[in-house]
Amino acid sequence: MMRIGVLLVLTAIAALVAGDANAHAVAEGDKGYIQEITGVHLVPFLYLGAKHMVTGYDHILFLLGVIFFLYRMKDIGIYVSLFAIGHSSTMLMGVYFDFGINSYIIDAIIGLSVVYKALDNMGAYQRWFGFQPNTKAATLIFGFFHGFGLASKIIDYEISPDGLLPNLLAFNVGVEVGQLLALGAILIIMGYWRRTASFLKHAYTANVVMMAAGFMLAGYQIVGYFASTS
Question: What's the predicted TM-score (pTM) here?
Answer without folding.
Answer: 0.85
